Amino acid sequence: MGGLTRMCFAVSIGQRSAGRAARHMCMNADEEVERLCSVLSDCADVRTAVDAVDHSMRRAGVSEPASSAEYIVGRVVGANSRSALRRRLDQSIGGPEKELIGNLSMRRIVRREPVQYLVGNWDFHHITLNVRTPILIPRPETEELVELILKSETVRTSQACSFLDIGTGTGAILLAILKQRINATGVGIDINPEAVRLSRENSDLLDLSARTCFQQISVEEFIPETLFDVVASNPPYIPAKDMQALEREVKDHEDTNALHGGIDGMDVIRCILRRTSQLLKPGGDLWLEVDPSHPERIEALCRNDISLQELTFVEKHHDFRGFARFVHIRRRR
């Protein structure tokens, strides 16, 4: 048995030691990893390594196998984008690189770790963010939210908007906006201390620290020094009944508290709505990413709940898949 095969086989044996149920669930995946490691030992270049990983992930039923293979191999050979990887397809690879490819592939195939956590960073709306478990991975839908905010009248007509990002996570929403609006400033809050550390780290990497502040605090407890022009949030919004249907990549590795929004998915959303008048300037905008079942409920709350009488439901927007995903609310002047 070659060194690469021994390494991967030993790791998969360790994975199987977790218990009989885990052994049963992972048996086929472990066997596929062992087979992949054997194939990788014979790979001479990047192209054959990508093909080998892609093939094994397809056999193991991993979602998006081609992109997973490209990102994993790209990380190992120093290609920081898929286009850069394709320029290196004929580059030779050695034993240490094959071992690392095998190890990362094992984590993707057996443990179903998201490829974003494996490569350690991810592109989001013209910026690159460091990502690590369990902080929520920025999604394409949230890029659409950023676009809606940037195109809004409030942001387009103001020279120096102030932003609040509730549940900031990696800092994705706030940092993407500030990168496009050079005179804007913002605050990001999150109850997870690791999220606050990561968002500060990303702010430093993007040279935005002078215009940002990140705090570990809940939206209920946050007291702003001044009111904001725009409040934005991608809060926990998944209803309880939908949590078990999430893919393993999500429910096994991402923070449940950043996903689960309570019985109807609106626990944190209701809290944000109640606090909006104490956070947002008169005439300011609140933007939320929500579950498709929420826009009508939120509109009804704004219309009928006397505690929300300062808020006007402006409109809902659909995401690229056609789901009602975003709501725009304004505080009355």
From TrEMBL:
Gene3D superfamilies hit by this protein: DNA helicase RuvA subunit, C-terminal domain (1.10.8.10), Vaccinia Virus protein VP39 (3.40.50.150)
UniProt keyword annotation of Transferase present: yes
Keyword entries, A-Z: Methyltransferase, S-adenosyl-L-methionine, Transferase
UniProt entry tagged with the keyword S-adenosyl-L-methionine: yes
Every Release factor glutamine methyltransferase N-terminal domain range: 55-120
Cited SUPFAM superfamilies: S-adenosyl-L-methionine-dependent methyltransferases
All residue ranges annotated as the Methyltransferase domain in the record: 159-287
GO biological process: methylation
One Gene Ontology term of the molecular function aspect: nucleic acid binding
Any Pfam family hit: PrmC_N
InterPro entries documented for this protein: DNA_methylase_N6_adenine_CS (IPR002052), HemK-like (IPR004556), Methyltranfer_dom (IPR025714), N5-glutamine_MTase (IPR050320), PrmC_N (IPR040758), SAM-dependent_MTases_sf (IPR029063)
UniProt GO cellular component terms: mitochondrion
UniProt-recorded name of the protein: Peptide chain release factor N(5)-glutamine methyltransferase
Taxonomy of the source species: Eukaryota, Rhodophyta, Stylonematophyceae, Stylonematales, Stylonemataceae
